[in-house]
Amino acid sequence: MPRKNEIAFAETPSVKLLARFCTYYGDSAPNRKSNVELASRKINGLTLYPEDEFSFNAQVGARTAQNGFKTAYIIQDGDFVEGVGGGVCQVSSTLYNCALLAGLSITCVNPHSLPVSYVSPSFDAMVSSGSDFRFVNTLSAPIKIVMKADGNDIVAEIYGVDKVEIKRRSETLETIPFETEYRESPNVGENSEMVDSEGKEGIKSRGFLDYYENDKLVKSVLIRTDFYAPQKRVVLIAKNKT
After folding, report:
1. How far is CA 204 from CA 71, 140, 173, in A?
2. Residue 155 pLDDT more than 90?
């Protein structure tokens, strides 16, 4: 199990930054920002010893009002709806990318049903009560996780001893066109229309990790292939009076 042990970690020789990853959330609504910052605080400062497994759900806890989480938009059944804890998936996705860049072993990760704006396709990490994000410290020494959220950026940093140069690469294999749906509305005048929701193409994508030595690519590893559903374009039209 993960342990917080600052003294033991500080005694490890040659501790350095292994990986850093940042995503932007400055445009989020206040409740979403609050959830992001609460989840980040619950992870910040955690030490993982060799073979320790990190579990996002175990570390952050249930996303409930009793645990301090607020209502914000989440993705559920292929749509954006309000739910308690909206925004925590950006925290898990930020840490996921940092763990990849640190060369840690991902043991559980799941994509969203729709594309998200804060990371490239095939580099998101959806979490829920039934879906966890987990990784194992497979390095030879302890690592320390630092998570910061300052109102604009979420920053994940992992400190340790081992160091490899790893770069992420997202490759779009196919785009899936969105459909347009026309809905009658009493708020739209005759012979006019109003866009209620912009459509968004679906994506089939692959995620790679590229390993470098002396700035030369030595290995590419396919880590996952994902499908993100398209989102409908909704257009409001005048209500039929007949």
Report:
1. 30, 36, 5
2. yes
